[in-house]
Amino acid sequence: MNTAPVLEVCGLSGGYREKNVFGGRGKEQEVLHDVSFTLYRGEILGLVGESGTGKTTLCRLILGLQPPSAGTVRIMPPPDRPGAPPQMIFQDPASALNPAFSVRRILEEPLKLAKVPAAGREAKILEMLALTGMDPECLSRQPAQLSGGQRQRVCIAAALLAEPTLLLADEPVSALDVTVQAQVLSLLRSLRQKLELSMLFISHDLGVVARLCDRVLVMKDGRIVEQGEIGSVFQNPQHPYTQRLLADSL
Ligand SMILES: Nc1ncnc2c1ncn2[C@@H]1O[C@H](COP(=O)(O)OP(=O)(O)OP(=O)(O)O)[C@@H](O)[C@H]1O
Ligand SMILES: [Mg+2]
After folding, report:
1. Helices (H), 87-143
2. How far is Cα 59 from Cα 61, in angstroms, rounded to an integer?
3. Where do the domains of the chain lie, and which CATH numbers do they carry?
4. Is 61 a residue whose pLDDT tops 70?
5. How far is the CA of 126 from the centre of ligand 1 (A)?
6. pTM for this entry
7. d(CA 222, CA 239)
8. What's the CA angle centered on 164, arms 161 and 165, to 5 degrees?
9. What is the 182 CA–ligand 2 centroid distance (Å)?
């Protein structure tokens, strides 16, 4: 395991801002409390915990979409790939993709943002299609003309074309059937190796986390109650909540 950290979250608290009755800015609601962890280069870190505990909120704070009320998020890109912002993949690929755009246009967007000249874009897109196991025939289609698994591959391809070192994967396989789930998971695993990607991988499915992740964070009511190597946490859970999660998943 490489020991260079790419993400350091320290004493992070925060949540979301409520809207007032007029639709304006309302009260700040705290969801996360004093969350601390480190994600290392090339590592897949699992994040598990029940619905509403604050997993997606944590991603929003990491991405800077919402300011924290306390604590810090430090993103440390490696010197050979500086500057690429973290990318996120979502549970529902259909809503993450612009329905009016062709796949080609969707994949061109991150390249335009990264100021890749037009002449160099097609080659990068074709290379990424090959890497994510998609047929170039898909390029002229719109999201509605793809299967769910293909849509998620497009989301992964678009995220990776930005050349991030950090990927936040928020339930990326939950909406897919088991066979396609397995394909997308093995894709993520191989991309981690090829691209030395670091990933925060959120899932309700402890089996998936056990197969994919190196370490795991267990969150309850907006706090990390346990973290450690997958083998030791899953075989010898210390916190009663982790013990219950594991018992429920058998
Ligand atoms: N913009 C918002 N307005 C109102 N409530 C919100 C908002 N964002 C988050 N919440 C609330 O904050 C809590 C944490 O939400 P979050 O989406 O982070 O949970 P989660 O752990 O990702 O859940 P799930 O596993 O269901 O995706 C929930 O109670 C949610 O309803
Ligand atoms: Mg969520």
Report:
1. 93-96, 103-113, 118-131
2. 5
3. 1-86+166-177+188-250 (3.40.50.300), 89-163 (no CATH)
4. yes
5. 37
6. 0.91
7. 15
8. 140
9. 21
